[in-house]
Amino acid sequence: MRTLRTILVGLAAAAALAVPTSAQAAGPTPGAPDGGNSIAFDGNLYAYRDPGFIGLCGAWSWHSSYWPTGCRNQASSIWNNGYPATLDDVNLYWGSSYTGAWACISQGDYWGDLTLGIERFSWGAGLPGYMEPVNNNVASHKWVTTCHQ
Amino acid sequence: MALLAASLCLAAGCTTAPAPDPTASIGPVRELTARETALLHDAEQILVRDCMRQHGFRYFPLPRNPVPENRSFPYVIDDVAWARRHGYGSDIQRRLAELDEADPNRRYYNSLSPAQRTAALAAINGERPVGLSARLPSGGVMARSDRSCTSAAERELYRDLPTWYRVEHVTDDVVGLWRGQVAGDPAFRAAVGRWAVCMREHGYGYTSPALARAELTRPDQPAGRDREIQVAVAEATCATSTGLAATATALDQHYASQVRRQYAPEFATRQRLELAALPRAGATVSADRGTTTQ
To answer: Domain of A90?
Structure first.
C-alpha cells in the first residue's frame, strides 16, 4: 500500500511527464529500468507502483498469470512498449490467471496516472471486477492480437 | 428485429426518443466495407515499414487476421460448428502463440544488439509516450508518442493525427460499455437463466457463458481438449435453443445504436477521416505493388 508521500511524488513526476523539460525533449536515458524513473527500452510491458514511470515493479516480454508481490494489485502506471508482432497488444486482468474483467492497452500506449481512479476494467461484462478501477487492481496480463475487439 | 429491440427496450425501461443528429454538419459519412478496412490496414503497414527503413531498420508488415478462424463471441458461443472445431478456441490461441514466436519482426528484433533494439523501439513507439492523448468514455486518459513510425504512418493516412488518435480510441472503447449494458439488461439476464437450465440438462452447472469460458480456459487448470469441446458445443446448442443468442444480438444492436448516437461526433469524425484516407491508402498499396513486382 502506497503512502501519501509516494502518491505526491508520483503526481509530481506525472506533471513533469506531461510538460516535457528540455532534458526530456532531448530524450531519456535508454537502458534497463532501475526501479526509479528511467524509461525502459527493451520491448516489454512495464508496470510501475506510482504514476509517471516511478517505481518499476514488473517488466514482461510474455504473459504473466500471476504478477509478483509488490506489483500485483499495486500498479499505478502501465506502459506497453512492446515491439510489433502477432501478439503486441495487452489485456490487463482484474484476477490472476487471466480471470475476471480486463482492460486493454495497445502497443505504444501508456496509462500514466491510474491513481485518479477513473480507469476501469471495461471489457468482460458479467465477470468479477467489471468496471472496477484499474488502479492497484491488475493481477495478470496476456499479450493479444488486438484491442479492437 | 426493430420490433424485438423495441420490446426489449421497454422491458429494460430505457427510452427510445431519437437524439438529434450532431453529425449533420460534418458531411456524409458511412461505415467502411471490410475491403476498405483491410486496405487501410495494409497501407498503414507499408508506411510503417518505409518509416522504419528510413531509420535503418527492417519491418515486416503484419497481416490483419493472422488466424482467420479467430472469432470473438462477446456474449455466448452461438456457432455449433465452430464450437465443434475449436471449443473455446484454445487451439487458436496456441496457433497465435506459435505465429508470434516465429514472427519475423520478433525474430528480427531479437537478433539486434541491445543498442540497436533501443533505437528500433524508439523508432517504432517513440522515445516517450507523450504527444497524443485520448480521454476514454470508460474512464482515464490513454497516451502515446506522436513521434514514432506508427504515428508517422497514421499521420500520412489520416492527416489530423491527434484527432485520429482520439476518435479511434473513443470509438473502440465504447464497445465495451454497450456490451456491459447488454449484460445488465433484464431480458439478457432472463435469457442467461434459461441457458443455465439448458446447460444443467446437458450435465453442466455453469451459471453464465462468461463464467463457463473463464473456467474452461484457465491456464493453471487446463480443461482438456475433449471437455472443452463438449462444453462449448453444449453452450452453443443452448444459446440457440433458449433464445439467448437472438436476445443478445437484438440487445447488442439496440445498445450499440444508443451509444453510437451518444458518441455520434466521434464516430462520424472517424468515418470522415477513414473515407478521406482511402485514396491515399490505395495509392500507397498500388505503388508498393508496382515496386515489389518490378
So the answer is: 39-144
The minimum CA-CA distance between B93 and chain A, rounded to whole Å, is 9
Question: By the 8 A CB rule, do B46 and B61 touch?
Answer: yes
pLDDT means per 10 residues, chain B with 294 residues, are 37 39 58 96 98 98 94 96 97 95 95 94 95 94 96 98 98 94 97 98 96 87 90 98 98 97 97 97 95 63
Which amino acid is residue B12, in one-letter code?
A
Tell me whether residues B66 and A79 touch, CB distance under 8 A: no
Question: Does residue A129 lie in a domain region?
Answer: yes
* Cell matching residue A113: 496516472
Is residue A143 within 8 Å of A63, Cβ to Cβ? yes
Looking at residue A49, which CATH number applies to its domain? Answer: 2.60.20.10
Residue A98 domain flag: yes
Min Cα distance B276 → chain A (Å) is 21
Quote the pTM value.
0.84
Which chain B residues are within 8 Å of A41, Cβ to Cβ?
117-118, 121-122
Q: How many domains are contained in chain A?
A: 1
Three-state DSSP class for residue A107: coil
